Amino acid sequence: MTRSTDGPWDPAIVDLPLSPWRDRFLWVEEIQASPAGDAAAAVVRLGEEGFSVCVNGDPWPEPFEKIWHLRYAPDGRLVALASREGEWTVVVDGVPWENRFSFVWNPLFSRDGSRIAVAFQRDMAYGMAVDDVPWEETFPNLTCPLLRADGAATAAVVQTEPLSEGDIVKYREGIYTAAVDGRPWERRFMNVWGLACSADGGGRLAAEVRLSPTEYTIAVDGTPWGETFACVWTPLVHPVRGTVLAPVRREGSWWLAEDGRILWDRPFVQLWQPQVSPDGRHIAAVVAPAFGRWTVAVDGRPWKATAGEMASDPCFSPAGGRLAVRFKDHGRWTIAVDGRVWRQARQMVFTPVFSPDGGRLCVRFKEQGRFGYLLDDRPWELAAEAAWDPVFSPAGDRLLLRTVEGGLFRRRVLPLEDFGKV
Amino acid sequence: MPETKPKDAPPAVDEGIERGIAGLTEERIRKAIRRVLSGETGARLKAYVDTCIHCGLCSEACHFFLSRDRDPAYAPVGKVKQTLWEMLRRDGRVGPEFIKQARIVASTHCNLCKRCAMYCPFGIDVAYLMLVVRRICHLLGVTPLYIQDTANSHAATLNQMWVKDDEWIDTLMWQEEEARGEIPDLRIPLEKEGADILYSVIGPEPKFQAQLIYQAAVILHVAGVDWTMPATPGWDNSDMAMFTGDNEIMGRLKRAHFETAARLRVNRIVMGECGHAFRSVYDVGNRWLGWSMPPIPIVHAIDFYHELLEEGRIRVARLFEEPVTLHDPCNVVRGGGLHEKARAVVRRTCAHFIEMEPNREHNYCCCAGGGVINCGPPYKKHRVESNRVKAEQIAAAKLKGAKIVITPCHNCHSGIEDIIHHYDLGVETRFLGDILYQVMEKP
Amino acid sequence: MNELYRLATGPLLWASFAVFVGGSLFRLLELFLLARRRERFLFTYLSLRYSLRSIGHWIVPFATVNWRRHPVLTIVTFAFHLSLLITPLFLLAHVVLWDEAWNVSWPALPDAWAIVLSLIVIAGCVFFFVRRRVTPEVAYVTSASDYVILGLTAAPFVTGVIAYYQWFDVRLFTLLHVVSGEALLVAVPFTRIRHMLFAPLTRAYMGSEFGAVRHARDW
Ligand code: SF4
Ligand code: SF4
Hints:
The complex is a heterotrimer of chains A (422), B (443) and C (219).
Chain A: E1 12-17, H1 19-24, E2 27-28, E3 32-33, E4 40-47, E5 50-55, E6 58-59, E7 66-72, E8 78-84, E9 87-92, E10 95-96, E11 103-109, E12 116-122, E13 125-130, E14 133-134, E15 141-147, E16 154-159, H2 168-173, E17 176-180, E18 183-184, E19 191-197, E20 205-212, E21 215-220, E22 223-224, E23 231-232, E24 236-237, E25 244-250, E26 253-258, E27 261-262, E28 270-276, E29 283-290, E30 293-298, E31 301-302, E32 310-316, E33 323-329, E34 332-337, E35 340-341, E36 348-349, E37 353-354, E38 361-367, E39 370-375, E40 378-384, E41 386-387, E42 391-392, E43 398-405, E44 408-415
Antiparallel strand pairs in A: 1-44, 2-4, 3-4, 4-5, 5-6, 7-8, 8-9, 9-10, 11-12, 12-13, 13-14, 15-16, 16-17, 17-18, 19-20, 20-21, 21-22, 23-25, 24-25, 25-26, 26-27, 28-29, 29-30, 30-31, 32-33, 33-34, 34-35, 36-38, 37-38, 38-39, 39-40, 41-43, 42-43, 43-44
Chain B: H1 15-22, H2 26-40, H3 43-51, H4 63-67, H5 76-89, H6 96-108, H7 126-139, H8 145-157, H9 165-180, E1 197-200, H10 204-208, H11 210-222, E2 227-228, H12 241-244, H13 247-263, E3 268-271, H14 275-289, E4 298-300, H15 301-310, E5 324-326, H16 330-333, H17 339-349, E6 353-354, H18 380-385, H19 388-399, E7 404-406, H20 410-422, E8 428-430, H21 432-439
Parallel strand pairs in B: 1-2, 1-3, 3-4, 5-6, 5-7, 7-8
Chain C: H1 2-9, H2 11-38, H3 41-45, H4 48-58, H5 65-69, H6 71-90, H7 92-102, H8 111-134, H9 136-141, H10 144-164, H11 170-190, H12 195-213
Helix pairs in contact in C: 1-2, 1-11, 2-11, 4-12, 6-8, 8-10, 10-11
């Protein structure tokens, strides 16, 4: 693709025809768009030789027997999981890692994309690998892999000894724990699930743990809270306070707890997906204030507006002043911002994206297989065959939209005033 | 007074139950009963217990009662008498042996099929009452070994069969590879965000019946469906925790399932031919989480095949020749009203269809459902003997010519297979998908 | 005796009406509050249409599979319940009492009819009694309270018929009739006779679940 303009945020439309790909390869799988929109890639079928990845029309030099999970990292590197001679590895921009595994899955990127982690299985031993360096210690099983946002640590739930099927006694004694960079916590639990860690150094690792068939709590760095609950959900480490927040169930209702103590003064029929605003001043969570009604609560106060089917993915604006959430009601998805529900509803809306100052909100939607965008509740029916989440310019006055329209991969940068016009 | 214990109850040497009651004190039992009866239940339980007029009219609804020579201990209300009434009457002061017997009755003498709710003049839901008993036993740690192990798998791996994260993906790739032998460009699209449909299965499919994933992939591919399967836990829609009384694990499983579908931004979830899983995602697990209906529509395979055939997206090349009969799975018929659609699919795919009697909402349960088959070998003999009426039903259909019993549910499939063997019925079972795959037009 | 009779037809009567109405309302309210407190979700599923569909099927004889399976029981059950409700409401002697007390009146049943209906109630009780003894699945779940309920129900009718025909001591049996009738009224909220209050609710709930959620019939 040639760039017709100089700066990445100069308004422009750049197209890349995809149809030659279809002629050249037996089939082309889902297109992936690079974060900057300057490249498109897909897993392609070569024929007898197997698979390759086609980037902007050119396949990687070496084919693989199998390729899956092609994704762009946030820094624009193209990552896939691929196999050759029955062995799997991670391939970055066409170059495989040195290490080979029996299987790899669940690739994870650090926030800036500089580090890549993956879960692996090698001869029935399980671990994680970061940038081609596998954990030294491996385990009979591993779930819930996690890479810290700064990329400096990995964690996962691990099974520490093998279990034969039907052995309910050993299971009850506890064979699960969490491991950080391959080093398991001392203590074992009946079950361990969702992990959470602070975004960067010096942080804590928190996990949902089950102490007995009916006692749940949160363990932080291996030590469970003193309080137990009827159930808990995935915790969250407060980015400013460093405390651990988690939804907990008591007497049939859900509460938000912080370091083992109930934080909010009222319970909900359901409470999950807690989020802390980037400035650390507000806590939000998806809640059901009544059976079958969904919304978010901010600092314990639920919005009046509710949806009958789902509220999901609450997200704060970068400065933390605004909050958006996906709402589903009567089979249609929409967005609610700061307690107000948008008028536009679609078969599907994707993750809402705030402008850097939080003043504008844009989201991708899908209707009958065609994509478009909503900017502050104003639709742009592009009828695109594919589309990716919008990106605001750092100044917040431009939008980068990446779509496939009429068989062309299109990178479009436009001033916000031009939304819906081109 | 008639004897209070059912005749020919299994000897029940069940390690899960024996170990469970070993550590029980009357105090602990009383606390658990209280917790459930005055903390977790409410108006329904009260109304059901207060309204039941002890008329026994529910008896003939139950295949256990009918199959076991009308033994009153197997009448739905008889099971309530042996369990809940006693707990209430004695205000929770019951012993470990009582809990053992209550667990056996609630977990292996009732399939929670809800047929009796259609026969009780008041619509008393004995299945619900048996679930209350199961809940109490779960809190006391008294659960049959096999199904407890399954619930353990659910808790540890979020699937029913201890399938590890990589084994799941590997199985899908393997089935994709196999299916490419038949349709070279077939794909099982993994992790495709924004697909129209998420296809979900139960744990035993990747573990033992991978060909069902193959068949589904062929059907979805030929129909041109925009679909995906997840490469993370949350792919399994099944739920034995719902049947042990472990509501917390049930909720965890259903949350993982719906959130996986939500994460992949699909419009609908299409599930394979499973009945209990349908119940769990449609009106049990979702409710425990606070969703009045499934937040993302769940389409059972019967419904989906019906849609594909009606819309002409799948065409039938030639009808299935052997005469078939159809078993109505409780969970999608009494639980989902799919009986007419199932018949429509059978008629569109099979040349000769013979009805079993009774049918539709009045079908007899397979006796495997409600987690009974999952309680394992110790109860197998009791289970098949407790469904003589189903054997008679099938035998009658066979007399009219049926050679195949279509059972569009995993539990029913296994349960009916056991019945066919035990009673030597000489017919075979098939999934609806087996038939559809066999008769459809393929490229 | 006269004193007793006055007491029974005076304060006791009103007291029993009060207990019956108040107790019934209390029971319903209690159930409603319990549902609100612990199972609020139940209300989400209540559907008027499917409640009525279900109740409609079950209050019509032979309209459900199970009614058809038990023809004798069905006939007895419906005849019994109808007679049980109609007789006390439309008995001439009762209508007159209402008229005297409150100046309200409505058409009354000819006495002969009332006797027939009363005999149906009594026969029904006998039928249910025998059924409880001889049908194993019913015997299995029968407790003393079930016989008490049958007895309580039969008593006002038996005594009423005796008093009407003036067998034995009329005054005694009239008194017994009044007292046993009052006992039956009072028993409604406190024994399983309250199925009379709850049945429409349990039926409505099951009907709604089957109809609106499960798309299936429940009869
Ligand atoms: S739910 Fe089914 S198995 Fe259980 S008692 Fe009722 S009819 Fe029998
Ligand atoms: S039919 Fe209903 S009222 Fe009669 S015994 Fe059974 S549950 Fe009780």
